[in-house]
Amino acid sequence: MINVDHLNKSYGKHTILSDISLTINDNQTTVILGSSGAGKSTLLRSFDLLDIPDSGTLTIASESIEFRDGYTNEQLQKIRAQTSIVFQSWNLFPHLTVLGNVIKGPISVLKKSQSEANRDARALLKQVGLENYENYYPVQLSGGQQQRVAIARALAMEPKFILLDEPTSALDPQSEANVLNVLSKLSRQGQALVIVTHNMAFARAIADEIVFLEAGKVSFSGSPSAFFTSKNERIERFLNKQTALPLLED
Ligand SMILES: Nc1ncnc2c1ncn2[C@@H]1O[C@H](COP(=O)(O)OP(=O)(O)OP(=O)(O)O)[C@@H](O)[C@H]1O
Ligand SMILES: [Mg+2]
Predict the structure, then answer these.
(1) What is the pLDDT of residue 61?
(2) Is 41 in the pocket of ligand 1 (CB under 6 A)?
(3) What pLDDT score does 249 carry?
């Protein structure tokens, strides 16, 4: 479980996250929605401590940090071990093959042997449909294939939660579909995912729980059916905007 309690984050005078309290369950898919600038990436990145909140508490598994009190490096490592983040642009190591990218963390951080890491990585590459690509370099792959390697690499660290920030927004429609299929499969297998996306159809299909952020506050959390049929005026406006043709948007 990821639990945040009264989380706050500002940059200068600008409040980015405002008194966020939230629980994200194990083995579920949670989708974070909201307009651009609402604080989605900042919230997701604070689960992995890439962005450090100013105050409030973050608890993952049995490890807790109260940000006002500061934290030790050991606490930070323990929290980070519970999550792996996948970015919009896949950030693979360009000088390593696909297999090399996936086994790097397990060998250096999880202290797996080369043969164990290879075996586990091959199973993950099969899971993301890339079993025939282990000797390719990132530059030889499409964006969608690179993103699937990034997902395999995140899974290889055996985290409780995979955090994904707009994982398909840089992809063409076919590559996007391939990545979404992989995520749907992981979700059905009970891998806990926390996904920021602007793809409403995908959000509706995959989410067990929707979290809707507005100006740094959680203004809805609940089931996708409740969210997508909400009569709340601001949620309706958000949904209408997401599905409007780009040319019709102001
Ligand atoms: N390092 C930073 N320094 C100053 N302001 C920042 C920083 N990172 C984010 N912000 C501000 O915080 C707000 C929320 O940003 P965030 O990236 O979390 O939004 P978002 O919901 O992910 O938006 P998008 O859908 O466009 O990705 C924005 O106003 C942004 O300008
Ligand atoms: Mg963002």
Answers:
(1) 85
(2) yes
(3) 45
Of the candidates 226, 200, 161, the one whose C-alpha atom is nearest the C-alpha of residue 28 is 161
In the chain (250 residues long), the average pLDDT of successive 10-residue segments reads 97 96 96 97 96 96 92 92 89 96 96 98 96 97 94 96 94 92 96 96 96 97 96 95 60
d(CA 77, CA 176): 32
Kindly report each contact of residues 35-41 with a partner whose C-beta sits within 8 Å and lies 24 or more positions away, as own/partner.
35/214, 35/238, 35/241, 38/213, 38/214, 38/215, 38/216, 39/9, 39/213, 39/215, 39/216, 40/165, 40/196, 40/213, 41/165, 41/196
Partners of residue 195 on adjacent β-strands: 31, 164
- Among 151, 207, 204, 156, CA closest to 182: 151
**Residue whose entry in the numeric block shows the structure tokens 């970015």:** 87
Quick one: which of 210, 212, 167 has its CA closest to 186?
167
Report the distance separating Cα 42 and Cα 54, nearest Å.
12
Domain boundaries, the chain: 93-158
16 within ligand 1 shell (Cβ under 6 A): yes
User: Are the C-beta atoms of 28 and 192 separated by less than 8 Å?
Assistant: yes
Q: What angle do CA 104, 27, 186 make, to 5 degrees?
A: 55
3-state secondary structure (DSSP) of residue 131: coil
Separation of 132 CA from ligand 1 center, angstroms? Answer: 38
- Note the Cα 224 to chain centre separation in Å: 18
Predicted structure pTM score: 0.94
Closest C-alpha residue for ligand 1 atom 5: 11
Ligand 1 atom with the smallest distance to the CA of 198 is 25
| Ligand 1, atom 28, residue with closest C-alpha | 37
